[in-house]
Here is the input.
Amino acid sequence: MKPFSIASDIHWVGALHPDLRIFDIIMKTKNGSTYNSYLLNADKTLLIDTVKSKFTDLFLQNISQLMDLEKLDYIVVQHTEPDHSGSLIALLDKAPDAEILCSKSAVKFVKNTINRDAKITPVGDGSTIDLGGKTLEFLQTPFLHWPDTMMTYCHEDRLLFPCDVFANHFCDSRMFDDAITRDFAPDFELYFNIIFRPFKKNVQNALAKLGNFDVQMIAPSHGPIIRSSVHEVMTRYDQWSRPVPENSTPRCLVYYVSAHGNTEIMAKIITEALKQDNMDVELYDLTQISIDEQLDNIEACDAILVGSPTINNDAVKPVWELLTSLTTLNLKGKLAASFGSIGWSGESVKFIDERLKALKFKVPFEGVTCKLVPDEEELQSCRQLAHKVAETIKA
Ligand code: FEO
Here is the structure.
């Protein structure tokens, strides 16, 4: 798509990627995406971010329609992930004298990306640059989405360039939120949950900084430019990134898979014992639920207990799907334990415990196993595990 104006002397010069169906390996993008780059053409010229390398030629053509590339003064690298830095080398080929402005922590990433000499200047939080009629202020906003991320605010236009923040994956050539007839709330929420959920505190820090600015338009790095719903989008980010409130009654979640009903017996005994210890308990058969729909629940719980039989010397696949779906959650310090019915080898509880520890759960108790059908002594071990979990939470 050709460049278009978003404010006086500011143009979008990015690329549309309508057939993108998966982003960053993990995120489904059924509506494609865009890589947004912005050219500020004042007395001095400055480009904010580049695009994915696949679109380099189109991107350079877009800029060339508006200026002589050799005369580009500055390139702002807000974030070095390749969807925004992928055309940087080709751009420097055309504009070798352009000065790269980036966060201090981005300097090494830029060097590792371009692998050549270039003029690279770190800019501090609150530092400004005057292009002649355009005053840009840089805001350090680390871990949104990488440690290098920063935002740029244009004072004259009250226009925020927040990089990945307030972005979503939606491709439409109309490019402004109020030109596209759509409620973007689900797109924003999906994007937030996959990209920013692990960085809620950083989101809150950034929102506190942005409270000092009268933002009237948001030009993110993906998806539509926001000019009709600035306040709503910021409010949503505030809501999604607030800390999870403490439970008035401790909440325990028991997840299990059972091949022949034996691990299920253990799960039910553990659930009953937790209830007797005045825990608020929910029991789930992992083969019957959507893990994605459990993420809020897990983030809000005090303890999680995971049960799996051992089959072929391993925990079973639905359990691994649970345990590999939790990386975006803040789980540090939550309590966890494992259990399962075994035949002859019994590796499942060991593997589950190792994974739970890697996710930063506290796993103070050895996993409980029973040999095939649990006998009374083994059921008592299940009750004792539940009791120890409850007592630890209460303590
Ligand atoms: Fe759009 Fe973190 O890159």
